[in-house]
Amino acid sequence: MKYSAAEMMTIAAARKIKDGDRVFVGIGMPNLACNLAMRLNAPNIEMIYEAGVIGANPSRLPLSIGDPCLVTGATSVCSMFDVFTFYLQRGLVDIGFLGAAQVDKYGNLNSTVIGDYDDPKVRLAGSGGACDIASLARQVFILLPHQPRRLPEKVDFITSPGFIGGRRERERLGLPGGGPTVVITDKGILEFDEEGEMVLVSIHPGVELEDVKANTGWDLKVSPSLTVTDPPTERELAILREELDPKGIYLKRGD
Amino acid sequence: MMSLAEAVDRLVEDGDTVYLAGFTHLIPFAAGHEIIRQGKKDLTLCRATPDLIYDQMIAAGCARKVVFSWAGNPGVGLLRSFRKKAEAKEIELEEYTHYGMVARLWAGATNLPFFPLRSNIGSDLPAHNPNIKTVTCPYTGQVLSTVPALNPDVAVIHAQRADAQGNAHIWGIIGEQREAAFAARKVIITCEEIVSSEVIKSDPNRTLIPGFLVDAVVEEPWAAHPSYVQGYYDRDNDFYLEWDRISRSEEDLRAWLDEWVYGVSGRREYMARFGAERILKLRVNSQYSVPINLGSYR
């Protein structure tokens, strides 16, 4: 069965979610991954949206983070201050999903500027809740396309801290969250070693190692136990295509 | 109670710091358009998520500065006027994280000078925003990040319903509306419907903003279009996509402002111009909560 790189990414992310996890969800791919996990490997996850919605069960794909469809049928609604303070800073969020324009080898994320902050080549949207999630969630899952400009050795601007310059730095600075644990791209899955540096642990089916390395902006470490990601199952694809994104809004089809 | 034109004329002054509240829900578009029509300028526009309405106000030349945490077209992409003027340094930027922005309002709303957070540390944001500082906790010695109180001159909040005194019921995603109202020196409430005080008092838990904080109450149906209002209408998503196209060219942008902002007297005319067919498609079906029992006490 054919599938797209975006479908593989979403499915790989869903498989990483454990049953019972409380997940801080954004719209788009993270929302799809959580909903897929809920239907398969993790039926009892709790989805928390940064708009202040807890236990959301949206009847459609939310158009934006503040879509009222998140509220209808949810368990609880609170203010933004409450969701960031009582839920995120309190340490109740197990997984926060983040994307970014750039991610570097220590998992630092840039969603602020390309180039110099005071004279940017491109002005991006800014942190939003990303820095807060990166600082405070127990684990951070990063999703992004695997391209050299998206994965530079050093980001132009640290919007949201990963391990900064090495794993011990988070602890030294007193950041409560555990930092990034996994990066899922359209080419593979990467984790962080004891130094806090990204290591390739799995390659998606049909992707060459050289292709992954050529599309990474530094000399990428490769795990000695490198594996090939299990391809999407028919069930996973069926749920994504028939139930979650029937119009193909977020995920291009492989066929 | 007054008209929106009167409220903006009386309460918004050139150079003011304004906060048009909402987290992609209940965005006070009608008030933003009225501010543009009245040619208000040198405003400092504050909001965690400056979206299309701030992009339009920036394009129309109302803004001197934007204080924000995420400047994008929600669910679509970038804000082109914001980005163009920011890259050309025609507007000043002061940026925080979402938590930082709402914590600033919280401090402002509770008469505190700052709020401490466990975020910002390790980010490059504090190095580029001197207002993000640190404090050493007097009890534990821990170093915490701090953000300063935000006290806007004016907050504009769109509510589902309010009474004539401005006691406002808001439900669904409640974002930072309450914090903005308590932090601001002046408050304008626009609402879908003015209801009697009996309706407000039938459900006091839903009153997020007490009328005594409110300087102007305006009944303005569809005031949040093209954004959503829980229980009233859906987002006009086509417009969010259209804006991405319109805001690409200076010419299209001017033409749009001329037709839809300067070329109408207010929201009624604006909505009439969209036509019934498009508007009716945005109506939502009802889904009611089960009534609660407040009890009657003797």
SSE blueprint:
The complex is a heterodimer of chains A (255) and B (298).
Chain A: H1 5-15, E1 22-25, H2 29-39, E2 46-49, E3 53-54, E4 76-77, H3 80-89, E5 95-98, E6 102-103, E7 109-110, E8 113-116, E9 119-123, H4 130-136, E10 139-143, H5 168-173, E11 180-184, E12 188-192, E13 198-203, H6 209-214, E14 221-228, H7 234-244
Parallel strand pairs in A: 1-2, 1-5, 5-10, 10-11, 13-14
Antiparallel strand pairs in A: 2-3, 3-4, 6-7, 8-9, 11-12, 12-13
Helix pairs in contact in A: 1-2, 2-7
Chain B: H1 4-11, E1 17-20, H2 29-37, E2 43-46, H3 52-59, E3 63-68, E4 72-73, E5 77-78, H4 80-87, E6 92-95, H5 98-109, E7 114-117, H6 125-128, E8 133-136, E9 143-148, E10 154-162, E11 168-169, H7 177-183, E12 186-194, H8 197-201, E13 207-209, E14 216-219, H9 237-246, H10 250-262, H11 267-274, H12 276-280
Parallel strand pairs in B: 1-2, 1-10, 2-3, 3-6, 10-12, 12-14
Antiparallel strand pairs in B: 4-5, 7-9, 8-9, 10-11, 11-13
Helix pairs in contact in B: 1-2, 2-3, 3-4, 5-7
What is the CA-based Rg of chain A, rounded?
18 Å
The CATH superfamily label of the largest domain in chain B reads Glutaconate Coenzyme A-transferase
What would you give as the CATH superfamily of chain A?
A: Glutaconate Coenzyme A-transferase
The tally of structural domains of chain B comes to 2
User: What is the average per-residue confidence, as pLDDT of chain A, rounded to a whole number?
Assistant: 94
Structural class of the secondary structure composition of chain A?
A: alpha/beta
Give me the count of strands of chain B.
Answer: 14
Interface with most residues: A-B, 53 and 59 residues
The poorly predicted ranges of chain A are none
* Sequence of strands across the biggest β-sheet of chain A: 4-3-2-1-5-10-11-12-13-14
Low-confidence runs of at least 5 consecutive residues of chain B:
none
Overall body shape of chain A: globular
Oligomer: heterodimer
Reported for the largest beta sheet of chain A, the result is: 10 strands, mixed
- Which secondary-structure class do the elements of chain B indicate? alpha/beta
